[in-house]
Amino acid sequence: QKEVEQDPGPLSVPEGAIVSLNCTYSNSAFQYFMWYRQYSRKGPELLMYTYSSGNKEDGRFTAQVDKSSKYISLFIRDSQPSDSATYLCAMKGTGNQFYFGTGTSLTVIP
Amino acid sequence: GAGVSQSPRYKVAKRGQDVALRCDPISGHVSLFWYQQALGQGPEFLTYFQNEAQLDKSGLPSDRFFAERPEGSVSTLKIQRTQQEDSAVYLCASSFRNYGYTFGSGTRLTVV
Q: Taking 80 as the threshold, does the pLDDT of residue B1 lie above it?
């Protein structure tokens, strides 16, 4: 079993829709949770960073962490075609390395 | 520079050839990481530097992989006697504190 599980999709939504992306994990020591966006042939770009449980909002993006369920989510409101990309969740405990999900491919259709 | 710079962007190597991949982190970033991303997969950790010290190399897949950061800035990932399974995108990331990495665009290595 991988440390982090993420549905690879692909996910296709109409412009303006609310998008929900999710990851589950098995390591209860994870404390730092991130969402990255990766465009084709580019490196991952940090979108959201959360420490421990709770919600964090930044513009159209909301990140949620539920440590009791080992479940994290990213919500995108009023989705735009420019949001079309692969979204990677990542998490870290007290060690150095981050553990990534496989990524969910999202297409927002105009 | 403004971001993490990696070179070359693309590298085609014949099986058995040695390759060297370069990473220029953001100036002042203490932490530097190398990740390997296979097609359709998330990045997998290779190694971690704090300044010039390689503190974690547990992700290096074999002794053919070697990384260095001799002056605490530029880093090089070297792969000896490349194999087809080494084909992947190699990502470098740096951070000032140990969270929220900034990634480069990666080097896409194809071993033929």
A: no
